Amino acid sequence: MPLRLGPLRIPWPGSAPDDPYWDMFINRPVHDQRNLVQEALRSPGGAVNPTKVELHTPEITADHLKQLAKFLGAELVGIVRLKDAEGPDSHPFVVVVAVPADHDPRTALGVGGQTPVRNGRFLTFTLASYIREMGYRATNQIPADQHRLAAAAGLGSLDREGRLAPPGRRVHVADEVIHTDLPLAPDGEA
Q: Which helix H or strand E contains 104, and what residues bound it?
């Protein structure tokens, strides 16, 4: 997504295709992974607040969490209830987010091309931290099937490669999903 500063846009019209610096920013893989912010956001996060917040209904709580995610930059947010999550230590809900993506992070390996990955990790890190501050457990995990979970949450359908393809949008499904025991109204079940 181009940055808009009043009438100016970065990259300015006509500059991106032949600008070697812009091409490097978007497409060249980084030399050292520590130069990417998303590597710093891989930490497990803080402790769970021992005092639980008094909640409204699961529907209102889910709506508030989705509004927070959209405020932080999510294009799509969905909640899935896991069928096989049982027991006192289980995390029965999964929160999946998708962020806007002008470039596919699988092919645009530069710092700029990885912006959707960073934004997705920032979102999941912040949402999980918020849930822990409310007194509920939340962990960020990189599942093998985040696109299937996003489709189960009703965020779109899967294309022939098994990736989420929401109608009329270019998005990146965050690599990490949030597993939580916060009582939420699910959009689907997996």
A: none
Let me know the angle formed at the C-alpha of 108 by 158 and 24, rounded to the nearest 5 degrees. Answer: 170
CA distance 155 to 31: 34
Residue 11: cis peptide before it, omega within 30 degrees of 0: yes
Distance, CA of 151 to CA of 189 (rounded, Å): 10
* Residue extents of the structural domains in the chain: 3-189
Tokens (6 digits) for 141: 């995990």
Q: What are the structure tokens assigned to 131, written together?
A: 């849930």
Residue 11 token pair: 């990259």
Residues 36, 25: Cα–Cα separation, whole Å: 12
Render pLDDT for 27-55 as a digit per residue (tens, 0 to 9).
777 777 766 676 666 666 788 999 999 99
Of 142, 127, 126, 132, residue with least CA distance to 174: 142
CA-angle at 35, arms to 34 and 40, nearest 5°: 55
19 torsion bin: left (phi>0), alpha (psi -120 to 50), beta (else): beta
Is 60 exceeded by the pLDDT of residue 5?
Answer: no
Instruction: Kindly provide the b/e burial profile for residues 134-152, where b requires at least 16 CB atoms within 10 angstroms of the residue's own CB.
Output: bebebbbeeeeebbbbbbb
- Taking alpha carbons only, the member of 155, 176, 183, 130 closest to residue 75 is 155
Determine contact, residues 58/183, Cβ cutoff 8 Å: yes
